[in-house]
């Protein structure tokens, strides 16, 4: 037993409150479990198929003000009030760590001000990418960003969505795709063969062969690996879902250590 746990529940019976059913009359059911676990605190969280709602539930008792989701990296940036930051992180990083393990997502906790500043910085980087690599003006780059495009690859593989932009005609959409293809080709020709970084090579349970296979997929550091989802590693020869999950959680260990350090400051 530890000092705290989070459990997600849902009901297969309509109109039945799953949290209330687990807690019991005057908390009798959950108290029995707590007693068996040497007074470990157990948070009962309502499961939700909408991942953002599920994360908000899992972060309680902290109140979430905003969420920015990166589905490719399976990371969420959580914005909270300044006076809620310590509660959101929890003692020793416990609250955010349990919420992350329960939902399967990496959760970055920051104040609303920090979240807004980071969002503005990311927008600036994306606009610079489009203006420099596609040789377009800021107005067109801004339209692409506002329509949800953040990489050159998306302009190629989501071409129908580019064509559907109201401000663009077919000729402009085709030109943007062509420039994106040329930029990526130039990048591929000029780039060196990726090699795994020392931290990836030295990571617990890692071997050199696997590290190079990961590097071939663009996963060159522990940070890169930590940002992956389990399914994204399954195309590696010999990789199982269990092994992929283990590797990702080992790579994410420094994140939890940072949360602990922030809480203790």
Explain how this protein is built:
- With 265 residues, the protein is mainly alpha-helical.
- The protein has four domains: 1-47, 2-Layer Sandwich (GMP Synthetase, Chain A, domain 3), CATH 3.30.300; 50-119, K homology (KH) domain (GMP Synthetase, Chain A, domain 3); 135-190, Orthogonal Bundle (DNA polymerase, domain 1); 198-264, 5' to 3' exonuclease, C-terminal subdomain (DNA polymerase, domain 1, Orthogonal Bundle).
- It is 54% helix and 11% strand.
- The strands form two sheets. A three-stranded mixed beta sheet has the order 3-4-5.
- Helix 3 (51-58) packs antiparallel against helix 5 and helix 6 packs across helix 7.
- The longest helix is centred in the C-terminal third of the chain and has 24 residues, at 241-264.
Topology at a glance:
Layout: E1 4-9, H1 18-23, H2 28-36, E2 41-46, H3 51-58, E3 66-70, E4 75-80, H4 85-89, H5 94-103, E5 106-111, H6 112-134, H7 138-146, H8 152-157, H9 159-163, H10 170-190, H11 198-201, H12 208-216, H13 222-226, H14 241-264
Parallel strand pairs: 1-2, 4-5
Antiparallel strand pairs: 3-4
Helix pairs in contact: 3-5, 6-7
Features:
single chain, 265 residues, mainly alpha, GMP Synthetase, Chain A, domain 3, DNA polymerase, domain 1, 4 domains, 14 helices, 54% helix, globular
Strand order of the largest sheet: 3-4-5
The count of domains is 4
Number of strands: 5
Estimate percent helicity.
40-55%
Beta percentage is 5-15%
Rg calculated over all Cα atoms: 22 Å
Number of helices: 14
The CATH architecture of the largest domain is 2-Layer Sandwich
Largest sheet: 3 strands, mixed
Give the CA-based shape: globular
CATH topology of the largest domain: GMP Synthetase, Chain A, domain 3
Class computed from helices, strands and strand pairing: mainly alpha
Q: For this structure, what is the CATH class of the largest domain?
A: Alpha Beta
Terminus-to-terminus distance = 27 Å
Which parts are unreliable, with pLDDT below 50 for 5 consecutive residues or more?
Answer: none
Would you list the SSEs in sequence order as H and E?
EHHEHEEHHEHHHHHHHHH
Q: By CATH's scheme, which homologous superfamily of the largest domain applies?
A: K homology (KH) domain
Overall pLDDT confidence: 88
